[in-house]
């Protein structure tokens, strides 16, 4: 199988802190990969580097045989790698439908095409089709700011998928979502993604979810990949057990809640 | 898309034609003059409105207003060119060009820093103008009599009517084009950029480039407005064209108008002009008090500006404005 | 040599009152996150009240030097009364709103306060020259400098030191520093944030008014003169770094020296040199030269 | 009132509107607007006395109480309704306001304007709107030198007279002066004043050297510490300034403790207003002008008109009239005379064109001097000019002047048709001193 996404000797340091150390990963087409690790292990840094938010300090990233190291996020997006966020990044004042329309519009637009009208029949029909695929019809005309957390994350993912990417990175799709909602949400998402035949990498804390949906697990610890194996094998790995999962589930949930804010802060720090 | 399929375009056309007819057949000269000045400013405010929808407020757009005004005035003074088909495009282009260059810098900033950086740039132009005798320094100078296709007039009433129709035509064109721009994919990136730049970036479009484009557009429109203002008033000077208080005025009219529609700046600007005329006549020392008070009231109680009131009124009668 | 000395003295004199005004502005921004345009109105009110009081005291028979007591009185009255009233009625309702909207609201407030000055004090300029006439002058760099300007340099130095001491050596100052650093954390620590906000705003207003009151005897106090200072002190705090006290000092010195140099040596650039520097600083160091450290959450 | 009909047509965005004036009928009232600085730094020293002067004379005209030969009532018999408007806010605002005065408030004539900036900006607009406008104070020669004016009159000399006379006075009184510098506001008034003074000095005192660091602070800056330092550092012995408004007073207050008036000779071409307002705080030994024979410089001129003016003004406002009071009064008086003359010629209430015709080239006795509308086709007045030196009169506790010298109009103003800069540069040919 040919690799669609490949990182070669990627390192990332922030001053004295090493956020990624010698990351070598090769992901094949249609693979579904789970990325696990404690907070600060380097998962989001990995996602940020692949999607162009942060350039690696050293090393190369290749996509579909092409070197994308250091490209801007929008270039990488255009090439076919999209992502979702720990904290859903949607247009808060716009309705769900308009969020999708804008996303579709941008995906459609090339060059001066950006000056064409946004609201055309065909695009509206596509937006409605997406709404159905992600089962968000009931929220169609609701502003994103009023959505329940789960729906907002769903919208975030749907928007990432609008451009029909070849690779999708999901950053903690279930963080901040109640335990009862997690599986229904993931069922919708994974169902839709399967339909589109996209390669998926997702960061996840919940090992139940990981073991249910992924075919392969990457475990991060202190910026390094300490395990790269199918889920059953990975979750049984003593190092993974010690450094990633921990033994206190309650503690883990708390951490996840904290991760929410931290993630937002990281993104805004990166912006500033 | 056919022009008529768009209700706003239709509404704008009806509105501007109505104003033009009223102006030519009914309204007294002084009011025509007020509309002329108000619409000139409104052109600039439309530019600010685009920025505001993007979540950006500039405290320095007097830079472009002044550039436009001085371009028109200097073309007349130094080259004897009064042809509006030359001076107004030149004003627009000069502002757009400066906006394009400064855009590379300002597009990196948001919020207060965006506002203040623009202020700094505009104050540099102000300082240069005030201190340069060749550019008229504090006094500024008179603007050449305008001509259209080489035709000019000494008759004040004819000139006024012609300018008035001109500003109505350009106002209509600007409003329609900007409205259609806002309805385009790029136009949808106004509120989108304001809401979430990260998402815009990850949808494959550069928020910075989108902002740069809007900035150039606002600069061009503000330059056009300034150019028209110079012709309307027949005089330019730094205090009333370039000082930071002018930027403040533009922002004030933007807030007063509300972000709701491209028609709002024209209405808001006219209200502002009439308010000012009567305030100077009736309560000469309370003008700033009125402006300041209005600003506070709008910020606290009417964030949608005048437009929100109008559309609410119209909505009650079941008519879409 | 004489020229250099003169630039130094002029620049320091100019910097000293700008520093006092900017200090108020920057502290208010640092703590409340409000870029307060109405600060210019405090300055103008301070100047008007001071000029008015000096005139009154003088007619009451107070000696020219003695009229200087009007300066702190005016600053305190304006800061404590006007500052409190405005914090309680308007500013309080702005906390947490969009920064740019706050600037606009305070701009509205500024315009209102400027016109109220006209209603209260009339349209005629005020002159309160008594203190400058009373203070003995000094020969510096071959020219006669008035003692009043030198006193202003000393006073601003003292105020700078006092604010440094208050912020670094008192419990109160530590609370304020904590809020500047991270206001959410401050809430979590149980600091009474609204009270700190109120106090800081009033203190800032007193400083703004003090700047105006101190400059009043050296200028014609006329309508609209708060306009220029507000843009200038914006430049000072932006150059120095919004919210930073050493930044305000450096910014004021830079602006003062630049302006003195421009007037004496290169008058053509006088009016915009400050803004050109401000633009340059923003371009290369958007946060200003001395941006206060921000809490970094990872 | 004018009856306006508008015929409009939109086709290719062309429209025409014609104004037809109603036939001249006897009128009960003439409405005039009098703009002057009523707020800001220029209000106290200039706007208020200007307004007072105009108000007092208009009241006297309406009551028929001016001294003979001006004791007829009103303008050509019509009562004068006056509206005072504020001149502050910048040139462009003045242009907009002027349009409102004419088009919205329908005034018959505008009499006033203090700032040269206002007048330079308004000149083309006045011509466009075709309404009689009498500039009362503003001094820039550019008003008539930049174009031919039909509807504008100026009833006092322009800045050239002040500065030529200043140079004459320096030559007469201080022939030993070796070098000079200046501090002037950076707008038409200050720039023109300095230019005329500098050129006149080159002609009259060619040996005196000019400083290379002449100060041009912004008008209404209010703060001159650095400029005063620059002047102090300058080796020049003489400082020329055309400061007027609050800037002048601020400058004097700030320069006194700095010892500038002791260190240098200072000539203030518009210093007259400050003498009364500053009283004892006005330093002695300052060379003072009042833009002509007005205010403190003609306190002792014992003509019936002048004595009436000073007494009536003092009784009503509690101070002596300064320059602007005289100058506004003079503009109002000139307009009255033009109306009366035109009415006498037309045998009824005159049309605007008739008033303008009689205004042109008029010569009349004003309150303190003789005014001749001799230049710019009879639109620009010339009068004598005068300088003196301040001296506090301790006996009466009043400001006073010594060494007063008058210069005839033909000595300090260029002949008709000659641009003032050209005239001075060529060595003031034809000057009768």
TrEMBL record, chain A:
Keyword Transcription: no
GO cellular component: plasma membrane
CDD domains: ABC_Mj1267_LivG_branched
Entry superkingdom: Bacteria
InterPro entries in UniProt: AAA+_ATPase, ABC_AA/LPS_Transport, ABC_transporter-like_ATP-bd, P-loop_NTPase
Keywords: ATP-binding, Nucleotide-binding, Transport
One Pfam family named in its UniProt record: ABC_tran
GO BP: any one term: L-alanine transport
Residue ranges that the Swiss-Prot or TrEMBL entry lists as coiled coil: none
Residue ranges annotated for the ABC transporter domain, each copy included: 5-247
GO molecular function: ATP binding; ATP hydrolysis activity; L-isoleucine transmembrane transporter activity; L-phenylalanine transmembrane transporter activity; L-valine transmembrane transporter activity
Protein name: ABC transporter ATP-binding protein
Source organism of this protein record: Thalassobaculum fulvum
From TrEMBL, chain B:
Principal cellular location given in the protein's record: membrane
Pfam families in alphabetical order: BPD_transp_2
Assigned keywords, A-Z: Cell membrane, Membrane, Transmembrane, Transmembrane helix
Subcellular location: Cell membrane
GO molecular function: branched-chain amino acid transmembrane transporter activity
Natural source organism: Thalassobaculum fulvum
Alphabetized CDD domains for the sequence: TM_PBP1_LivM_like (cd06581)
Record field: transmembrane: 12-31, 84-105, 112-130, 156-178, 250-272, 284-310
UniProt-recorded name of the protein: Branched-chain amino acid ABC transporter permease
GO cellular component, one term: plasma membrane
Topology in membrane: Multi-pass membrane protein
Automatic annotation (TrEMBL), chain C:
Keyword Cell membrane: yes
Compartment(s): Cell membrane
Gene Ontology cellular component terms for the protein in this record: plasma membrane
Entry's Gene Ontology molecular function annotations: transmembrane transporter activity
Membrane-spanning ranges: 12-35, 42-62, 68-88, 100-128, 148-167, 196-217, 229-257, 269-286
Keyword flag DNA repair: no
Superkingdom to which the source organism belongs: Bacteria
Primary subcellular site in the record, as a coarse category: membrane
Family matches, as Pfam families: BPD_transp_2 (PF02653)
Record keywords, A-Z: Amino-acid transport, Cell membrane, Membrane, Transmembrane, Transmembrane helix, Transport
GO-annotated biological processes: amino acid transport
InterPro entries associated with the record: ABC_transp_permease, BCAA_transport_permease
Membrane topology: Multi-pass membrane protein
Family statement drawn from the similarity comment of this UniProt entry: Belongs to the binding-protein-dependent transport system permease family. LivHM subfamily.
Name used for this protein in its record: Branched-chain amino acid ABC transporter permease
């Amino acid at each position: 199988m040919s690799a669609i996404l490949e990182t070669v000797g990627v390192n990332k340091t922030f001053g004295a802190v090493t956020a990624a150390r010698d990351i070598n990963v090769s992901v094949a087409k249609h693979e579904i990969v789970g990325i696990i690790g404690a907070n600060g292990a380097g998962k989001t840094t990995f996602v940020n580097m692949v999607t162009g938010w942060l350039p690696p300090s050293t090393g190369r990233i290749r996509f579909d045989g092409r070197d994308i190291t250091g490209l801007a996020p929008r270039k990488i997006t255009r090439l076919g790698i999209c992502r979702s966020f720990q904290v859903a990044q949607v247009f808060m004042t716009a309705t769900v439908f308009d969020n999708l329309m804008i996303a579709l519009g941008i995906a459609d637009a090339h060059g001066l095409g950006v000056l064409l009208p946004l609201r055309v029949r065909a695009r509206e029909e596509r937006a409605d089709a997406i709404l159905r695929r992600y089962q968000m019809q009931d929220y169609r005309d609701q502003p994103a700011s009023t959505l329940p957390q789960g729906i907002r994350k769903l919208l975030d993912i749907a928007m990432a998928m609008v451009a029909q990417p070849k690779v999708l990175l999901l950053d903690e799709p279930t963080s901040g979502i109640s335990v009862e909602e997690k599986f229904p949400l993931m069922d919708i998402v994974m169902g839709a993604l399967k339909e589109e035949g996209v390669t998926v990498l997702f960061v996840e804390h919940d090992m139940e979810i990981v073991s249910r949906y992924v075919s392969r697990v990457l475990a991060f610890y202190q910026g390094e990949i300490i395990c790269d194996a199918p889920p059953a094998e990975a979750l049984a790995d003593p190092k993974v057990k010690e450094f990633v999962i921990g033994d206190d589930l309650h503690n883990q949930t708390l951490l996840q809640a904290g991760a929410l804010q931290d993630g937002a802060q990281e993104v805004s720090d990166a912006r500033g | 898309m056919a022009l008529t399929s768009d209700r706003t375009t239709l509404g704008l056309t009806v509105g501007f034609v109505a104003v033009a007819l009223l102006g030519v057949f009914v309204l007294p000269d002084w009011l025509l003059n007020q509309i002329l000045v108000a619409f000139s400013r409104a052109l600039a405010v439309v530019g600010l409105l685009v920025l505001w929808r993007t979540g950006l407020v500039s405290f320095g757009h007097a830079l472009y207003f002044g550039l436009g005004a001085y371009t028109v005035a200097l073309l007349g003074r130094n080259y004897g060119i009064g042809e509006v088909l030359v001076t107004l495009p030149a004003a627009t282009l000069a502002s757009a060009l400066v906006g394009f260059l400064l855009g590379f810098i300002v597009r990196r900033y948001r919020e207060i820093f965006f506002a203040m950086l623009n202020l700094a740039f505009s104050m540099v132009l102000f300082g240069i103008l005030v201190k340069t005798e060749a550019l008229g320094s504090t006094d500024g100078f008179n603007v050449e009599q305008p001509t259209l296709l080489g035709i000019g007039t000494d008759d004040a009433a004819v000139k006024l009517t012609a300018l008035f129709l001109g500003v109505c035509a350009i106002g209509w064109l600007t409003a329609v084009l900007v409205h259609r721009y806002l309805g385009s994919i790029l136009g949808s990136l106004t509120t989108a950029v304001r809401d979430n730049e990260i998402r815009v970036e990850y949808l494959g479009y550069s928020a910075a480039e989108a902002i740069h484009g809007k900035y150039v557009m606002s600069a061009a429109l503000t330059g056009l407005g300034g150019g028209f203002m110079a012709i309307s008033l027949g005089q330019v000077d730094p205090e009333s064209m370039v000082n930071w208080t002018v930027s403040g005025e533009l922002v004030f009219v933007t807030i007063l108008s509300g972000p709701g529609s491209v028609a709002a700046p024209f209405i808001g600007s006219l209200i502002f002009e009439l308010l000012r005329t009567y305030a100077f006549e009736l309560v000469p020392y309370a003008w700033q008090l009125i402006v300041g008070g209005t600003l506070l009231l709008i910020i606290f109680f009417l964030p949608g500006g005048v437009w929100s009131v109008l559309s609410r009124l119209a909505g009650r009668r079941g008519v879409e404005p | 040599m004489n020229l250099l000395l003169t630039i130094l003295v002029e620049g320091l004199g100019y910097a000293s009152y700008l520093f006092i005004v900017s200090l108020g502005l920057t502290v208010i921004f640092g703590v409340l996150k409000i870029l307060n345009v109405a600060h210019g109105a405090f300055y103008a009110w301070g100047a008007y009240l001071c000029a008015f009081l000096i005139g009154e005291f003088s007619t009451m028979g107070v000696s020219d030097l003695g009229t200087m007591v009007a300066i702190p009185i005016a600053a305190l009255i304006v800061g404590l009364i006007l500052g409190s009233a405005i914090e309680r009625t308007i500013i309080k309702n702005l906390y947490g709103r969009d920064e740019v909207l706050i600037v606009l609201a305070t701009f509205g407030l500024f315009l209102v306060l400027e016109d109220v000055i006209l209603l209260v004090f009339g349209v005629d300029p005020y002159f309160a020259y008594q203190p400058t006439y009373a203070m003995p002058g000094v020969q510096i760099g071959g020219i006669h400098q008035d003692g009043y300007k030198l006193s202003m340099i000393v006073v601003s130095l003292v105020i700078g030191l006092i604010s440094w001491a208050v912020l670094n050596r008192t419990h109160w100052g530590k609370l304020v520093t904590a809020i500047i650093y991270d206001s959410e954390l401050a809430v979590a620590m149980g600091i009474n944030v609204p009270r700190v906000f109120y106090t800081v705003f009033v203190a800032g207003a007193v400083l703004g008014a003090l700047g105006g009151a101190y400059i009043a005897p050296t200028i014609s106090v006329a309508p609209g003169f708060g306009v220029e200072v507000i843009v200038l002190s914006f430049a000072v705090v932006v150059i120095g770094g919004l919210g930073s006290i050493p930044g305000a000092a450096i910014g004021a010195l830079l602006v003062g020296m630049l302006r003195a140099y421009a007037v004496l040596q290169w008058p053509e650039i006088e009016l915009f040199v400050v803004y050109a520097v401000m633009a340059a600083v923003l371009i290369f160091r958007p946060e200003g030269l001395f941006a206060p450290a921000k809490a970094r959450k990872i | 009132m004018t009856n306006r009909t508008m015929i409009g047509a939109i086709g290719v965005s062309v429209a025409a509107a014609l104004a037809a004036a109603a036939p001249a009928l006897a009128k009960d009232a003439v409405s005039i607007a009098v703009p002057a600085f009523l707020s800001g730094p220029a209000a106290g020293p200039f706007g208020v006395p200007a307004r007072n002067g105009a108000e007092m004379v208009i009241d006297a005209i309406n009551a028929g109480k001016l001294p003979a030969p001006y004791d007829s009532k009103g303008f050509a018999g019509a009562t004068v309704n006056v509206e005072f408007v504020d001149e502050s806010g910048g040139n462009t605002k003045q242009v907009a306001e002027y349009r409102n005065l004419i088009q919205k408030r329908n005034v018959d004539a505008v009499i006033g304007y203090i700032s040269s900036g206002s007048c330079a900006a308004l000149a083309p607009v006045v011509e466009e709107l075709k309404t009689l406008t009498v500039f009362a104070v503003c001094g820039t020669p550019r008003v008539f030198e930049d174009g031919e004016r039909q509807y504008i009159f100026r009833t006092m000399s322009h800045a050239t007279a002040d500065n030529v006379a200043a140079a004459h006075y320096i030559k007469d009184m201080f022939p030993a002066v070796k070098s000079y510098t200046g501090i002037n506001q950076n707008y038409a008034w200050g720039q023109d004043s300095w230019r005329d003074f500098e050129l006149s000095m080159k002609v009259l005192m060619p040996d005196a050297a000019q400083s290379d660091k002449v100060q041009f602070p912004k008008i209404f800056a209010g703060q001159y510490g650095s400029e005063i330092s620059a002047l102090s550092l300058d080796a020049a012995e003489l400082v020329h300034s055309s400061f007027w408004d609050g800037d002048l007073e601020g400058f004097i207050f700030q320069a006194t403790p700095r010892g500038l008036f002791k260190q240098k000779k200072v000539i203030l071409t518009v210093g007259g207003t400050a003498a009364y307002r500053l009283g004892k705080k006005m330093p002695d030994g300052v060379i003072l002008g009042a833009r002509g024979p007005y205010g403190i410089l003609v306190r002792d001129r014992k003509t019936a008109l002048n004595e009436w003016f000073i007494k009536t003004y003092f009784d009503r406002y509690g101070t002596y009239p300064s320059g602007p009071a005289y100058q506004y009064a003079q503009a109002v008086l000139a307009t009255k005379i033009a109306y009366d003359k035109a009415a006498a010629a037309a045998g009824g209430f005159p049309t605007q064109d008739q008033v303008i015709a009689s205004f042109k080239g008029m010569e009349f006795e004003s309150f303190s001097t003789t005014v001749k509308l001799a230049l710019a086709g009879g639109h620009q007045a010339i009068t004598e000019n005068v300088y003196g030196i301040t001296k506090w009169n301790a006996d009466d506790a009043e400001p006073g002047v010594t060494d007063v010298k008058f210069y005839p109009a033909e000595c300090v103003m260029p002949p008709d048709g000659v641009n003032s800069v050209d005239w001075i540069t060529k060595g003031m040919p034809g000057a009768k001193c």
